[in-house]
Amino acid sequence: MTSAASTDTTLSDDWARRVNTLLLVVAGILIMTPTVWMVLSSFKPSFEVTAYPPKLFFTPTFENYAQLTKTTPFLSFALNSVIVTVGSAGIGLLFGIPAAFAVSWTRISWPALLALAARMAPGTLFLLPWYVMFRQVGLIGSYTALILSHAVITMPIAIWVLLPSFDNIPRSVYEAAQVDGCSLTRILLRIALPLVGSGIAVAAILCFVFSWNYFLFALVLSNGDTKTLIAAAFNFVGEGSTQWGALMAAATLIALPPLLLAAVVQRWLVAGLTLGAVKG
After folding, report:
1. Same domain assignment for residues 101 and 37
2. pLDDT, tens digit (0-9, with 9 covering 90-100), for 131-166
3. Residue 214 belongs to domain spanning
């Protein structure tokens, strides 16, 4: 009886693994198909991008990528995106890290909930006040306006990603540091931060991605000198026609930096996402 039950359990586990593998493969195909189609379309002539049925076999061309550099200051737009994204992600982490530590230390959650509500609100809710404020002080079209407006996106992300990381640190560690005479600032800098390094990596990646891909503020608050890649890609969408090939090439290049950054810090990214998932 014991041997039969053990065999049944083994078969059940084997089938469960097969089903899980199948589900993961199906999910991977569903997630990657649009991305693969976008990349392949960037090497097609524009008239073949919208061809029906889609052409799976075609002669690759770099015409779309050449068009990006010929018709637009693409490198300048890329530099603008880097400046805005790094600046807003830096501000988000600069204020989000101590805010998350303070919420975890005091166990008072309403500031974090307030920040989350600001993040969940539609961007149009902030757009008009931002525009009026920045116009009054002459900052429309400046990096400052874009960085500060994008910080509204990055700061709540940093707070909520880092909260589980700080909560996962045993309270006894803080108490021991207090007994040794450490102030809250030294506890944060010398003890807490080294223990939540993976969480900071995840927060930095997510802040970077959300700011890099955010369209609304970059479209309205920028000008020709500070326009970001995501807003510049909108130039290929016209009233009468859309340059699909160039648009796919631009989308492919826009997607590369977050993907490369995530690949570089993959080890810390996985560790940070699982940190605090199971708490003893």
Report:
1. no
2. 899 999 988 989 999 999 999 889 999 998 899 889
3. 64-274
Together in a domain, 27 and 87: no
For the four alpha carbons of 126, 131, 134 and 136, in that order, the dihedral sign comes to: negative
Contact 206, 272 (CB under 8 A): no
The reply to whether 47 falls in a domain is no
Q: What is the pLDDT of residues 58-76, one digit of tens each?
A: 788 888 888 888 878 888 8
CATH of the domain at 265: 1.10.3720.10
Angstrom distance (rounded) from CA 212 to CA 235: 17
* Burial (Cβ within 10 Å: 0-12, 13-18, ≥19) of residue 256: exposed
Encode pLDDT of 10-57 as tens digits.
657 778 788 888 888 898 888 888 888 888 888 888 777 777 777 777
What type of residue is 151? A
